[in-house]
Design a protein that fits this description.
By secondary structure, the chain is an alpha+beta fold. The chain contains 2 helices and 5 strands; from the N terminus they run αββββαβ. A 3-stranded antiparallel sheet has the order 1-2-4. A two-stranded parallel ribbon has the order 3-5. A hairpin with a 2-residue loop joins strand 1 and strand 2. The N and C termini lie far apart (about 60 Å).
């Protein structure tokens, strides 16, 4: 039984290393690999793709394409539709 578990663990580590080459087998984590940062980040939900934006958590009513714009402190990543629904408008520097 222990031999089967060790083989299964080795197969999982191998699969993870193929899917996420930046991670080493010694530091297998539950988080997936982070893709390269792009100005426009998206998520996939079935066939729909929704643009992600950054909104301030400490005041402000503009959404941003970069978390570092306007020196935001602890910005939150949300979908564009959610940001608009909450009354945020586009930052003139980012868009």
């Amino acid at each position: 039984m222990k031999k089967h578990l060790r083989i299964l663990a080795a197969v999982l580590v191998l699969c993870f290393s193929l899917l996420c080459p930046a991670a080493s087998a010694a530091s297998v984590q539950t988080a997936a690999c982070k893709p390269s940062t792009a100005a426009v980040q998206t998520i996939s939900a079935g066939k729909k793709t929704e643009q992600m934006v950054w909104v301030p958590t400490h005041g402000g009513k503009k959404y941003h394409s970069k978390s570092t714009c306007s020196n935001m402190k602890d910005p939150e990543k949300v979908t564009l539709s959610k940001a608009k629904a909450e009354g945020f408008t586009a930052c003139k520097k980012c868009y």
